[in-house]
């Protein structure tokens, strides 16, 4: 089952997919992956719905590379049709998934792709992933003397702030319902941008000095 190479989070605004490429992987070395491997690591856009964030790729020394893909949650049915059309699902039986979409779209993945979504606790996976990156991936945008405790700010459709005291111990200290969902909603109401990617591209050309942020 090649599902162990993948993980997915489907939130209220965006869906995120990760693919783990082991050190030395190639399509010839992994006949079961077929064209999927080369397509995932060499392509930036998959149809009109999915994009790979090349700048977010993580290199794990001695392990391999982790690739990140994203899509808007309201386009998940187009993503499923794209995967089905290219037969990318044929050797995947189960896939770990977090977020509300793990429940909402479970039947869609099962009926159309034959993939069972293994529902995982989002915050536990988030913390274990963050600890893994801090321990094994050097030269990222953080510095620390001791690993614990630390504050983890998770920005999704809403925002949660967690105090983490170990890989298995944490509690939520604050948060807000304002987040990516609010950002995208305001963009659709106040600008010509109708998608998350369009809004991000537009922000690169905008001027924050033109906005009165005083309260």
UniProtKB/TrEMBL annotation:
Keywords: ATP-binding, Coenzyme A biosynthesis, Nucleotide-binding. SUPFAM superfamilies: Actin-like ATPase domain. Pfam families: Fumble. GO terms for molecular function: ATP binding; pantothenate kinase activity. It comes from the Eukaryota. GO terms for biological process: coenzyme A biosynthetic process. GO terms for cellular component: cytosol; nucleus. This is Pantothenate kinase. The lineage of its organism: Eukaryota, Sar, Stramenopiles, Oomycota, Saprolegniomycetes.
């Amino acid at each position: 089952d090649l599902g162990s190479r993948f993980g997915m989070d489907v939130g209220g605004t965006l869906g995120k997919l990760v693919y783990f490429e082991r050190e030395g992987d190639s399509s010839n070395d992994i006949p079961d992956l077929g064209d999927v491997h080369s397509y995932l690591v060499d392509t930036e856009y998959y149809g009109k719905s999915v994009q790979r964030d090349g700048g977010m790729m993580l290199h794990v020394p001695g392990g391999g590379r982790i690739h990140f893909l994203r899509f808007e949650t309201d386009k998940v049915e187009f993503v499923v049709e794209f995967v089905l059309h290219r037969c990318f699902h044929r050797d995947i039986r189960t896939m770990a998934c977090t977020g509300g979409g793990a429940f909402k779209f479970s039947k869609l993945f099962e009926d159309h792709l034959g993939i069972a979504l293994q529902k995982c606790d989002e915050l536990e996976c988030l913390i274990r992933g963050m600890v893994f990156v801090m321990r094994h991936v050097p030269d990222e945008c953080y510095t620390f003397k001791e690993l614990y405790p630390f504050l983890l700010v998770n920005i999704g459709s809403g925002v949660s702030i967690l105090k983490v005291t170990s890989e298995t111990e944490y509690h939520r200290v604050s948060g807000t319902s304002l987040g990516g969902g609010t950002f995208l909603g305001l963009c659709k109401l106040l600008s010509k941008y109708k998608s998350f990617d369009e809004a991000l591209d537009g922000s690169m050309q905008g001027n924050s000095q033109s906005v009165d942020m005083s309260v």
